[in-house]
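Task 17 of the worksheet. Students: predict the tertiary structure of the chain below and write it out as structure tokens. Keep your answer in the requested format; marks are given for formatting as well as content.
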Amino acid sequence: MLKGLYETTNTNWILLLRTKLLSLKMEENENISNFISCVKDLSDKLGDIGAKVSSTDLVAFTLNGLVKDYEIFVSSLSAREKQFFYMRRRGRRALIWALVV
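Model answer:
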């Protein structure tokens, strides 16, 4: 009985965090580093409860949430044929756009 209760709670938590991640939008005056940290934090929380977010989804969620100031950047990245991904570097949170060859 307890197992079923915790599985339901876990599923609800996953749905809540995924919804937050999908709807996350950068504020007009927000620093890009802060926005990326918010995306990464939600992703990490999902990973901690067994719902890992793929690198491709992380990039998509991030690009989708950027303000209009980044529209040209988003368009140019979206037009590329090669895939981009998130990476962690030296224990600090950092977004690294890298080509997957």
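Marker's comment: Strands lie at 83-85, 98-100. Residues 2-23 form the longest helix (22 residues).
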